[in-house]
Design a protein that fits this description.
Length: about 210
C-alpha cells in the first residue's frame, strides 16, 4: 500500500494529485491544511491558536501539528494500510519526528512526491483559487509569504528525501493527465501500485477536481 508524502509549494497541485492518488489506491487522503481549517471553523481554543498562524501564512508550531495530525495518520494507516499526506511534514524537525514515529509504528512513508511549477504560475493558480473558494490565506501578500516559508522551511526536505531514495520530482506546468501518467508509471515501477488494478479502475482517466 502506498504511504506517500506530497511535498510541494502552495499551488503546485499536491491537493489535486494527492486526491487522485487516493482514488487509484484506496489509501486515505490526509490534508494537513484541511484538518487545520476544520479546527479553526470549530472555533475551539486549539482552532484559535491555529488561526493566528494560518491567517498570516506562517507555519503552525510543530507541537500543535503533531497533536492534531498524529491521530489522523495512525487511524488512516490502520484502516486502509496507506495514506497520502498532503502538507505534512513541512519542516525538518517535523520530518525527523515523523520518521521516528513512522518507524515505531511500522508506518514509514515509502514515497515522496515533489511537484514543481514556475513561481508566477503558482501565484496565478492560487489567485484563481481565491476567486473560486475564497480561502483567507490566498491573498497576494500572504501567498508570497507562504512561498517564502516554503523556500526556507520546507525546501530542505527535498534533499533529505532524495537522499533516502524515495523522492519523485515532477513538473505540473503541463496537463494534469501527463502528470498523472508519470505518477502512475513511477509508482508502478516501484511496485507500489499494481498495473492492472490501477488501469481497471473506472475513474483512472478522469482528471481530479481542481482545488
Ligand atoms: P495548505 O492547505 O497545505 O496550504 O496549508 C494551509 C496552512 O496551514 C499553511 O499555510 C500553514 O499555516 C498551515 N499548515 C499546514 N500544514 C502545516 C504543517 N505541516 N506545519 C505547520 N503548518 C501547517
Amino acid at each position: 500500500m502506498i504511504r506517500v508524502i506530497m511535498l510541494s509549494p502552495p499551488g503546485a497541485g499536491k491537493g489535486t494529485h494527492g486526491r487522485w492518488l487516493t482514488l487509484q489506491t484506496g489509501a486515505r487522503h490526509i490534508s494537513a491544511g484541511d484538518i487545520l481549517r476544520a479546527e479553526v471553523a470549530r472555533g475551539s481554543d486549539l482552532g484559535q491558536q491555529v488561526a493566528a498562524y494560518t491567517e498570516r501564512g506562517d507555519l503552525v508550531p510543530d507541537e500543535l501539528i503533531f497533536r492534531i495530525l498524529a491521530p489522523e495518520v495512525v487511524a488512516a494507516a490502520r484502516h486502509t494500510g496507506g495514506y497520502v499526506l498532503d502538507g505534512f511534514p513541512r519542516t525538518m524537525p517535523q520530518a525527523l519526528r515523523a520518521a521516528q514515529f513512522g518507524a515505531d509504528l511500522a508506518l514509514t512513508s515509502n514515497a515522496v512526491v515533489y511537484l514543481t511549477a514556475p513561481e508566477q504560475e503558482l501565484v496565478s493558480r492560487l489567485l484563481d483559487r481565491a476567486r473560486r473558494d475564497g480561502r483567507s490565506d490566498d491573498t497576494l501578500g500572504v501567498i508570497r509569504h507562504r512561498l517564502g516559508v516554503f523556500a526556507t522551511e520546507t525546501a530542505p526536505l527535498v534533499d533529505y528525501y532524495r537522499d533516502r531514495g524515495i523522492l519523485v520530482e515532477l513538473s505540473t506546468d503541463r496537463p494534469e493527465a501527463e502528470v498523472q501518467a508519470d505518477l502512475l508509471a513511477w509508482f508502478q515501477g516501484r511496485g507500489l501500485i499494481q498495473p492492472l488494478a490501477a488501469e481497471s479502475r473506472p475513474d483512472s482517466a478522469e482528471p481530479a477536481a481542481e482545488r
